[in-house]
Please model this.
Amino acid sequence: MRQGGEYNGGMSYRKTAHSVYSLKVHLVWITKYRKPVLRGEIAKRLRELVRQTCATLDVVIESGHVAADHVHLLVCVPPDLAVSELVQRLKGRSSRLLLVEFGELNRQFWGKHLWARGYFAASSGNVTDEIIKQYIDSQAENLPPPDEGSTFSVGD
Model:
């Protein structure tokens, strides 16, 4: 079981037995043909299915929004779960169950495909690339400079 924690000046991290992490990803996926069908009870049921799926995968939903034709999620993903696997599970389970539970969707989405192919994913975090580079550089302050043209130093 993963636990939350506060480290490094108030930044919130999660931890497992062998890792401490904060891997946040912004995900977006759309309905097939961008059909605006995610409304009312369908949208509520989709939200419930996404919450259930994330809970079983130990994924924390930081924020989310179900629009009429697409879904936005900001999630904290454990390091042993690939983003592609997370999206596959979210889209697969929700499509299968929504098409079974809401007959009106079957008339609009033949072939058992509610979602369009693909998705958008972008990593997110509290630290910029520049801050990470500065931190890495500070680790090598008393070491000889890296090889010419290299940004990858070696310690003792």
Summary: The beta strands are 3-7, 11-15, 20-21, 24-30, 60-66, 70-76, 120-124. The first helix runs from residue 40 to 56. The chain has a mean pLDDT of 84. The chain has one domain: 21-139.
